[in-house]
Amino acid sequence: MRILGIDPGLQLTGYGVVDYQFLRPKLIDGGVIRLQQRTPMAERLLELEKELESIFVEYSPEVCAVEQLYAHYKHPRTAILMGHARGVILLVAQRHGARIKEFSANRVKQAVSGHGHASKLQMQRSIQAIWNLKEPPSPPDVADALAIALCCGRFLGDR
Description:
By secondary structure, this protein is of the alpha/beta class. It has 5 helices and 5 strands; from the N terminus they run βββαβαβααα. The chain has one domain: Ribonuclease H-like superfamily/Ribonuclease H (Nucleotidyltransferase, domain 5), CATH 3.30.420. The radius of gyration is 15 Å and the shape is globular.
């Protein structure tokens, strides 16, 4: 089963492609979609959609795993803005017929690092160790997206 994990963002959206068969995940690709901060929101969302389209066409994932929206009471605007990116992600995934699974950040961290409040660095090192990579994935958004894909594979493997 091919899983596309996505860590939504309006500047950096991380993505990770993993083939998950017989509880043995195989790393296919990982990267980030870079969006310009000073570009108007509508243009960034259009760019995000175009980039995601090309990723879906290239990798044909069966499942798209996305981090759930989290709102901190001190920064509610961030959650609202992030909702725009998640909306585009869900739209593209649905358009391509991928099953959509959503996971909380704490659940992803627990599944991959064993600690629900792991730091960005801990997540990068966990991903590095899982696939025996020479360096931790950088930027951290790549490690987060790969972790989301792994969490999804483990979740679906339990079913």
